[in-house]
Amino acid sequence: MAPKDRKPHVCRNPDLIRGVGKYSRSKMYHKRGLWAIKAKNGGAFPKHEKKAAAAALPEKPPKFYPADDVKKPLVNKRKARPTKLRASITPGTVLIILAGRFKGKRVVFLKQLTSGLLLVTGPFKINGVPLRRVNQSYVIATSTKADITAVNVEKFDDKYFGKKVEKKKKKGEGEFFEAEKEEKNTLPQEKKDDQKTLDAALITSIEAVPDLKSYLGARFSLKAGMKPHELVF
Amino acid sequence: MVKGRQGERVRLYTRGTILGYKRSKSNQYPNTSLIQIEGVNTKEEVGWYQGKRMAYIYKAKVKRNGSHYRCIWGKVTRPHGNTGIVRAKFKSNLPPKSMVKIHPDMDLLAAFCVFSGVKSV
């Protein structure tokens, strides 16, 4: 009932139990000040003039009725939003990657992308992990934080990492195989440059912290006698 | 399984032993297996592992998907008793040969509790 305008407004009619308010209709009338509104308006409730309804075009009966009733799909009001980020993961946190090519690597978290994936970088010079997306579930957050205020992550988003759309080629068989192979393997120079500029700023702030560089360079592994449930990250 | 690099072996999983199926004295229920996770000795410690995924990895003669290794995935469901043993359910029931060490095919272990999962670390 109370609109959430400026500060949180306490409900005028608190629930005793769900569905049952504390105050009766007449009490609520008084609480809402409807008597004051009426008094201000000279004894009756203020009315708006009805807007002149646009003359609806007389609907013609459709010429065509489909043979079977077509089911309408239910309305889907879900909004896509990025997965909730764990409280322990903040920009600059050192994460341990648990699966994939870089498993065990300690890596710096930059930001969460709109798809929910985490943008992460080695930095590349330190441990060979490039700018990469990683899923939150495959990551352990440590309490170590690196300083990434100097780093500009604005330009990276999901599209940057998406697969390149190849233009459809006509199937001339001879050319087909050769041309395809050339394009595949090289990483475009601009991506390499992006990596370098990003890392340059990051590495200077990492080197400022003693041991952080070698920490990031080393991989995490369980050893004999280590109990994961007792480890504090 | 063959990766180009020879690298450090990184172990991100915990080992476990397969003890048997959930059972009473003369009946057993193969859809749930009992697993002993290394280093876990009390019921309270199991809480960390609850929900974590496990894999039973074994070798086979025929290559499938390019590898001689095969896997059955599962999850830790709940503790079993007071001393850290765990109940787990696998996608398909674990084969009885997994419970015996003598069998030459068997991969010693098999419970491979991945760190990740629902728990917020």
TrEMBL record, chain A:
Q: A single Gene Ontology molecular function, please?
A: structural constituent of ribosome
InterPro entries (alphabetical) = 60S_ribosomal_eL6 (IPR000915), Rib_uL2_dom2 (IPR014722), Ribosomal_eL6_CS (IPR049633), Ribosomal_eL6_KOW (IPR041997), Ribosomal_uL6_N (IPR005568), Translation_prot_SH3-like_sf (IPR008991)
Give residue ranges for domain Large ribosomal subunit protein uL6 N-terminal.
3-53
Q: Which Gene3D superfamilies match?
A: 2.30.30.30
Signal peptide location: none
Q: Which domain of life is it from?
A: Eukaryota
Q: What protein family is recorded?
A: Belongs to the eukaryotic ribosomal protein eL6 family.
This protein is called what?
60S ribosomal protein L6
- What is the protein's species of origin? Cynara cardunculus var. scolymus (Globe artichoke)
From TrEMBL, chain B:
- Residue ranges that the Swiss-Prot or TrEMBL entry lists as coiled coil: none
Q: Which family does it belong to?
A: Belongs to the eukaryotic ribosomal protein eL33 family.
Q: Which InterPro entries match?
A: Ribosomal_eL33 (IPR001780), Ribosomal_eL33_CS (IPR018266), Ribosomal_eL33_sf (IPR038661), Transl_B-barrel_sf (IPR009000)
Q: Which SUPFAM superfamilies match?
A: Translation proteins
Would you kindly state one Gene Ontology biological process term found in this protein's UniProt entry?
A: translation
Q: Which HAMAP family match?
A: Ribosomal_eL33
Per UniProt, which keywords does this protein have?
A: Ribonucleoprotein, Ribosomal protein
Q: Which PANTHER family match?
A: 60S RIBOSOMAL PROTEIN L35A
Record Pfam families: Ribosomal_L35Ae
Quick one: a GO cellular component term?
ribonucleoprotein complex
Stated name of the protein: Ribosomal protein L35A
Q: Name one GO molecular function term.
A: mRNA binding
